[in-house]
Amino acid sequence: MTVAKTIWLTGLPGAGKTTLARSLEQALFIRGRSCTVLDGDELRRGLCSDLGYSPADRSENIRRTAEVARLLNGAGAFAIVALISPLAADRAQARHIVGTQQMIEVHVAAPLETCEARDPKGLYARARRGEVPDFTGISAPYEVPLNPELSLDTSALSPVTCLGRLMTLLSV
Length: 172
Description:
alpha/beta, five-stranded parallel beta sheet, 5 strands
């Protein structure tokens, strides 16, 4: 039987992390696996509603998410994290919390131009006008993962192909 893991989807806003997370959740559920999506937007409305977007607050957001993922894995559930998590050091801290063998880092690697064109919430346009400070990819950095277990370019690969590659990696 497959051991529950944390699948950590990282990438720019609009790269397709949430879409991929929801597809993976459905595929795992169909296969009888217990799983939960930890989506950045949802976490910021609840568990992390007291946090802003400063570097310290972003780190704390990631730390809290990793702690929840670890608890889910301990209960036998897959944790599917859809979180920008822009800094390598914060992702490394998450891996330490979750466990090196438990965490699978997936870079949802859509180029900035694709993410801006998608702009599902109009945030890139607002960031370009200076209305959204510390916006990842525009006025705040995003450090591309150097050694993710998987990289998926959602500008070149279909959602079905991305999901297939994830499922193959998970061997479920």
